[in-house]
Each structure stands twice: as structure tokens, then as C-alpha cells.
Amino acid sequence: MHDTITRPPFDTELGGFIDALHARGPFRFDPGMLPRMRELESTEAELDARLAGRGLERHARTVPGHLGDPVTIAVIERTGRTGTAPCFLAFHGGGMMFGHHLGNLESYDPLLDHDAVLVSVDYRLAPEHPDPTPVEDCYAALVWVAEHADELGVDPDRIVLVGQSAGGGLAAGTALLARDRSGPAVFAQILVSPMLDDRDDTTSTQQFDGVGVADRDFVRTGWRAYLGDRRGTEAVSPYAAPARATDLRGLPKTYVDCGSAEVFRDETVAFASRLWAAGCDAELHVWPGAFHGFTSMQPDARLSRVAVAALADWTARLLAD
Questions:
Q1: 1 pLDDT exceeds 60?
Q2: Rounded to whole angstroms, how far apart are CA atoms 82 and 209?
Q3: DSSP of 75-121
Q4: pLDDT at 3 (0 to 100)
Q5: pLDDT in tens, 195-249
Q6: Cα dihedral across residues 45, 127, 207, 262: positive or negative
Q7: Which run of H or of E encompasses 272?
Q8: For the chain, how are helix, strand and coil distributed in percent, rounded to 5?
Q9: Rounded Cα–Cα distance for residues 102 and 285 (Å)
């Protein structure tokens, strides 16, 4: 940690969460934590009851992942929905190492307001399943959804990739794979505080070293689990670390956001700038004083409500086209 480095301040309302986090002392990741960090925080029955209370239902499916190995997807939609709907194909966060495809589903409510179908992918996790398995699982799920659009009641021309943190990096990598393989059409992508760059050489990685949520050391740990000794070398694929892509032309409409007080800030801003330079349609928000994952961890904060509303507005405009 660099005690003397200057960094943007945390939002006053959000700062209490950071103060409480730091009061517990520095977080030290241990691989033995992974089983607990990969668990759903409630039972699936409890989850389904909460979904039903919001007028939603869930169906689990097993689909082919990387090399045809089975992966699970969750299909979530309004109870009794009929007709053809847009599809949000979602990839959860967790530093490539943990998280659950049924976790934090409430964050997708603004998307489901459009009577859309949410498909959440249980991609396989590092270090047991390093690159390219996670991103290839995500791409395989995209192919399956496009091929089974009629069965799912979704419009294959309106599939939107959605990811937060590691899931944001996987969404961007999946969009690149779809473009380069002439795969299924991707209508748009939503990248929330995406994990895009394994090289660890931005100013924001230095500013948030031992500070905040998902700090520099934690992110390094995730990249090492995912890439092994290739991390930071020229042997890393742009599908694994999309910041390495040299050509972003032809990518779909993109919503991208981050906090000014988080480790992923600079790679997120750089990616948006490169999308514009490539002639792509991108909307960027950098939320002042926000830490990584602030909308989920402090959903009632004013800045969180503003950020959620901005994404909801963008989504409404996207689907109105």
C-alpha cells in the first residue's frame, strides 16, 4: 500500500462503508475461502420465493459449454410472459474465482422491467478452470441462446451481454469472440466496473492498493488464478483481457461505468475511449467517489440510486430503437 499516494476521495455517504471495511483490518485472500465465497447466500427455494414475490420465475437448464462440457444457466422471466422478448445474457462477478450465477439477481430488476428474459450463466471458475474455459463457456451460452431463441421466446437479434467486474470482462471478451468468429449477433453490451486489463499498470491500480473494495492485490490474485504465469505477458489473449484487443471496430452499442475511487477506473475509461475511436456507440459514466460494487453494497445511497437510474434510462432508450 502506498501511504503517501494521492487518490480521489470516497463519496461522503459511501465513505462510511469503506471506513467500516478498513476498521476490520486488511483483507488477506486465502484459497481455502473459495468454497464459501462460491456459495449462494440463501437456499434456491428462498430465492425462488423472492423471485415469485416480484412476479418472476426461474428455470434451470443444462447447456453445452466449452468443448461441449455441461454448464448450467438460469432462465428468469415474468410469470406468464408470452411473445418474443429481448434477452439479457448475464455473467456474474467474482474476480474469475468466485461468485454465483444466482447471486445479486435483484440488480437485474431494471432490465426485467422491459418484460425481457434474463439468462444467467454458471461459467466455470479459475483456478480449477483457467483461461480460456470461463470466456468460452460464456460464448457457448450465447451460441446456445441464439440457436434456441424460439424455444426461449427471445429475439435472437436483441441479445444484450451484461457483466459486472469479472463478468464485465467476460461480456467484453464474449462480444469480441462473437465478432471475430462471425457468431451470433450481439445487440449491445453492459459493462459495469469491468475487469479488462491484466497488466496492472494504470494509475488507479496504484491509487487503490490496499484501499477500498477489490484492491490491487486482490485483482492480481484473480488474474493469476485465471492466467497463471502468462499474466502480464504478451501471451495473453484479448478474449481473456479485452483491454489488449487492438481493434474494437464492429463492437455493439455499449454502456460502461465505474467509480472514480476504484481500481478498475482507468482501464474502463480507456476502453470506452477506444470504442469511440473505433467508431462504436458507447456511453460512459464515472461515478464520483464510488467504490467497486457500490450499487450492490450500498443500494440505498443517493449515488447508487442515480447510477441505477442511469442504466435503466440507457436500457429504455436501447430497447426503444
A1: no
A2: 49
A3: EEEETT--S-EEEEEEE--STTT---TTTTGGGGHHHHTTT-EEEEE
A4: 58
A5: 999 999 999 999 999 999 999 999 999 999 999 999 999 999 999 999 999 999 9
A6: negative
A7: helix 265-277
A8: 40, 20, 40
A9: 26
Residue with cell 480521489: 8
Residue 40 CB contacts under 8 Å (≥ 6 apart), including other chains: 47, 100, 102, 103
> Which of 69-84 are b and which e, b meaning 16 or more Cβ less than 10 Å from the residue's Cβ?
eebbbbbbbbeeeeee
Contact 7, 67 (CB under 8 A): no
How would you class 15 by CB atoms within 10 Å of its CB: exposed for 0-12, middle for 13-18, buried for 19 or more? middle
Q: SS3 letters for 153-207?
A: CEEEEEEEEEEECHHHHHHHHHHHHHHHCCCCCCCEEEEECCCCCCCCCCHHHHH
Separation of alpha carbons 180 and 320, rounded Å: 28
Looking at the DSSP bridge assignments, the partners of residue 253 are 188
Using CA atoms, how far apart are residues 101 and 119, in angstroms rounded to an integer?
9
Query: Facing residues of 137 across strands?
Result: none
2 pLDDT band, cuts 50/70/90, is very low
| Cα torsion 33, 36, 40, 42: sign | negative
